Amino acid sequence: SHPGIYVWNTLLQTLFFVIVTYLVAEVHRARKEEQLLVRTDFVSGAVSRRYFDELLQMEIDRTRRYPHPVTLVYIDVDNFKSVNDLFGHKMGDEVLRCITKELKSQLRTTDTIARVGGDEFALLLPSTNLPEAQAALSKVRARLQEEMRQRDFPVTFSMGSVTCLVPPSSAEQIISVADMLMYEVKNSTKDDIRFVTWEGTIKRH
After folding, report:
1. Percent of the chain beyond pLDDT 90?
2. Ramachandran class of 91: left when φ > 0, alpha when ψ lies in -120 to 50, beta otherwise
3. pLDDT tens digits for 168-200?
4. In what order do the strands lie in the sheet with 112-115?
5. H or E stretch at 165
């Protein structure tokens, strides 16, 4: 055969390989972007509620196989509505981003920070017992308060923390406990933390 035919076939095969490689890379990129959209709250930069629920269930499943304590924290931003009313939603979004940034700077890379409502956050702290949770959250709350004061954001934080010493029957069960504690604080003094442990029943501290 003529040498030109061999060269032409080689070029066609190379072009086909390049096109296929490009298309595969684009599919992977699109999938990663889709996963990022599902997993991230783009206002605050925290994890989304949906992805957080998945991570919490995975951690509960892990505690059943390899017993260890895990702490779940719910945080409500007190007076957040007043920020939106007085300064606008752009400032409200800035408050949420500031909170997320500060939480990330204070917690471990193995911890998860999620925005689970308009002005509510959740923290998942694996392998964290009650004394460790108390120490970490006291520090986190103090740093958040200082950051809010420096920025003149008129908000405080109501927190409910539940440390599971035995696995709950479901993620929803332990979420309801953390949520209840958070609202107990919000509906009483605000700007405080309440701690319980879970051993099949609630034990207050």
Report:
1. 74
2. alpha
3. 999 999 999 999 999 999 999 999 999 999 998
4. 112-115, 120-126, 70-78, 156-164, 192-198, 202-204
5. none
